[in-house]
Each structure stands twice: as structure tokens, then as C-alpha cells.
Amino acid sequence: MSDERMVAALLRERAGYLRRGDEDRVAQVDAQLRHYGHNPGPEPGPDPDAPGGPAGRQAPPQETTTAPPQDTVTAQGDAPDGIPGEQEQPKRRGRPRKPRDAEGNIIRE
Predict the structure, then answer these.
(1) What is the per-residue DSSP string for 54-86?
(2) Is the pTM of this model over 0.85?
């Protein structure tokens, strides 16, 4: 990371601590700014997020879509095709579970 990017990041961090009133953290960030050759003043400098700050700091907004609703189980517990008593199992999420014995130990294959 170049020094000017580090200074810009530290200035943003310092502005956040000033908003919260955390003077101890402001002093720590000031020490780091001096390490990088930037003299932090008593007041916050220009807003690094304002136009004219470091370029390429914000990702473009992502377009999201919603999935159409699926008729999986009706209020009576019937399957979508109307067969009484036939219920769909919910879709399992994540990694498949490893087989286990009666005591709960993983069975190695």
C-alpha cells in the first residue's frame, strides 16, 4: 500500500474516532500519521471520501433481483400437486453431513 493511500485511510479512521469522541484512538492514529510524514492538525482535514479524494474507493452498486415465490407446501401440509400427507423436505443448506455411528463418531470411509 502506498504512503498516500495509507495516509488517506488513517485520515478516514481519525475522522471516525473524532465523531465518536474517542481521543485515545485519535492520538494513536495521529502517531501513525506522523510516522508516514503527515502532520495531523487539531481539526480534521478535508474529508477523504469527498470528491477529489483517492480514486476507486467505492465499488459500484450491485443490482439484485428477487426470486419468484415458490409454492412448496400449502397451509394444510399438502404438496404443491395437492396430494394429502405428502410434504416436501426442506432443502438442506451447506456441506453434506458426514456419516456417524450411534455414539456420534464420524465414520471414516
Answers:
(1) -TT-SPPPPP---PPP-----TTS--TT--TT-
(2) no
